[in-house]
Amino acid sequence: MDWGRAKNVLIYAFLLLNLVLGYQLWNDLREQADSNLDITALENNTQQAMDEKNIRVLAKIPTETPELPKIAYRFVDDTQTGKLTDLSVPVDSRLIFTPRDLTAALKDNLPDIGDYRYDEVASSADVFVLHPLVDGKWPLFKIELKLFNSNQKIISYQRRAIEISYPEEEKPQRVLSASKALGNLIENFLPEGSVVTEVELGYYGEVFDSDAHLPAAPAWRFMLESGKEYYVQGISGDVISPNTEKTKE
């Protein structure tokens, strides 16, 4: 037996094993860091509840707490509202990720497309979902503009046009922090094993047919890996789970 060659083979084998183990350790540490992203912003009892219920937070927890008013909106009496409308010229679906180019491409069909924002978590391969923006910044959740995609081209759209107003009696109020809203969810509402993948501030209003102005309040949206969503009203702190159509306090 060539002991010199055997010794070299063993050395290379140990080096390879160390590389594999080192990569596995680095990957485990990275996943652990990701799964605990921003949890230092949460109170101790919330972190304890996370451990007990095996809940992970993979989303960045926003620190902003702006002062926002409640708003009102109504559905505009438009002959095209709610109907599927074909685009005069199909648009490359890749433009959905470049808002400025998308606005330029769709402005003839949808002149106010710049007042909407793409919602990646609510979209699918065939349907892109956008929400109207309040003050050009905050998405009005549950109100949707849908762009239908086929063969990598946006070919049609569907929406219910709305008009937003600001009741004089509604004064801006400081919204609840995302960390407190999430803490309430973790401790009292989220099921075991939940994985929070997205946290965003916007507006939430009831969606039903009416000619009257409908109220909408600031709300934090929390998306889970399972696809379930929760909303926490930014002023009252009420928890809304549209999947069950039940409001909880």
TrEMBL record:
GO CC terms of this entry: membrane
Pfam families: YycI
InterPro entries tied to this protein: YycI-like (IPR018604)
Domain named Regulatory protein YycH-like: residues: 100-233
Protein name: Two-component system regulatory protein YycI
Organism of this sequence: Paenibacillus mellifer
Source taxonomy: Bacteria, Bacillati, Bacillota, Bacilli, Bacillales
